[in-house]
Amino acid sequence: MKISNKYHHTEQQLSSELDIIKAAQRNPKHFESLYHKYYESIFRYCYQRVDSDHMAHDLTSQVFLKALTNIKKYQYKGVPFGSWLFRIAMSVVYQSFKDKKAERTINIDSIAFRGLLAEEANDEHFTDHEKAKLKAAIHSLKKDEIAIIEMRYFENRSFREIAEILDIKENNAKVKAHRILGKLKTKFAL
Q: What is the pTM of this model?
């Protein structure tokens, strides 16, 4: 079984998923298996950004409604269908922030992320003072910069997947992540 370099899916899995997508494009009842496959990951994506179970369920529903409504416009690019769904989810979540239906939440209790910001990190968790500094530093970023930091350092997504979700080149995702992390390190050190 040959593993694709596209987010750890085999060629067979990608092909099988494409068959389901084509069936769903012909008849919406076939969308159900895509819904079940991706519901939990889309819900977690939404929940991590709004920290409200009710709002996350509402946003997740909107994502799948948009996906179902626009399934005929979907074009296969050799990556899992989930990348397209995450792009929709990002748009839905940002729209909810814009409409003030939800307030942005970022979970900063990440041991790995703490180590990236402070070389002297010898404690596993952020102190209250560090949390306040990091929150201020993150709030100074642009929304696309926050998205890259969230996907890379809090969700552990590959640069390839980030690039697909944001519709940019993989190398561009790497460069942006590095620059944003540098910006955060500078602000965090102040």
A: 0.69
